[in-house]
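FAQ: What does the model actually see?

It sees only this:
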Amino acid sequence: MKRLAFILLTFYMFLGLTVVAQTGTFELKNHTGLDKIQFQLINNLIIIPVEINNVELSFILDSGVSKPILFNVNEDDEVLNESNVSPIYLKGLGDGQLVEAIKSKRNKIKIGDAVSYNHTIFAAFNTGLDYSPKLGIPIHGIIGYDLFKDFVVEINYNSKYLKLINHDKYKERICKKCERVDLTLRNGKPHIRASVVIAEQQVPIHVLLDTGASDALWLFEDETQDIVSNQKYIDDFLGYGLSGSLYGKRSRVESLSIQQFKLNKSLVAFPEGSSIEILKQNNDRNGTIGAEILRRFNLVFNYQNKTLILKKNSNFKSEFTYNKSGIDLEQRGIRVVKDYYYSLNNGRLTFAKDVTEFVSIRNTERDYRFDVRPAFQIAKLRDNSPAKHAGMELGDIILKVNNKDVKDYTLQEVIELLNGKSGKRMKVLIDRNGRVYEYQFRLIDLI
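And it is asked to produce this:
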């Protein structure tokens, strides 16, 4: 067995690599110099179709990563070019250890009409980092810098499309409601200057822009720069890194400003752990602006000119909300459900979404069939949360939320059912090891 080389690759939140190596160049295989790609937006994350060596996959577009990462495939899957592969170890954020991976060269990547024929890809195995249960759809990897460096990239969060534009075809247009912001690129990642108001004091910050981080704002606590959490915070699960789960304090800042744009009462997280300490020592970066803020704008990234154009969209004034129930759900496995139907005199069969709709119907023959649906399981349960105090437990399977059967819902729709304003009454029916329980609680805003 070959001896594994050791490479320290630090990831930020959703795997932002800090090394940039030579790799293939994307080119548009059309005559217009422009391509428009529709994307899915799930939990603030941009999901785009990507082909690797003619295998169709789904990737997260992540401006905080400098190399493509493949992580939701088996070692036996024939996706990567195996003729030029070397084993390595990766180290990422989280509370875990090193992760075994491989580095594969000379791969073909196709995104829309953009193609690269000589691409280096990292593939991490057995990481536990699987976005599919967290987002409810298959996710196979992430890509960032390699796409942003070769094109002007326009992201329209409202209409959910991505434009890739050749630099020689791009004409910059600054509207009255737009802001042109200077970018600083460090290890292939975009940074900007902004400011926050904490404890009635305006504090300048230097932050990474990360489309692959679903949170609003992360800040590294530093008393010397007046970046500190206030007394109203909760200890919370913040997300997953390559090396495990990430935790910290969740609170609010009084405001966040990016030039003329001001966002009030933005959520902020103060991550904790040894991997965060390493990042704080590397440069003057104070944190990250994530997609919960970025989705409030339509964006144009121009790495060649080191500029970003921001134009606020209809999401700009949306309230900053967080998980008040304390329940973090994942889509894991399946559950068997009964689908009832009834037969009228004409013999037409209709399946019922809710069996109670047909209890009072007379002269009707009712029957049922068994079907399978996704199982929405509690994967994390915040301490001192309303759901935890009510008696809910890890591993519980959600069946109904406020009398709504979730069998025909997506994961994100069920998560939305569990959200709401402070004081909202929740009634949740769950399956625990084959027994059904009902719990009731009210949502509480602790920050």
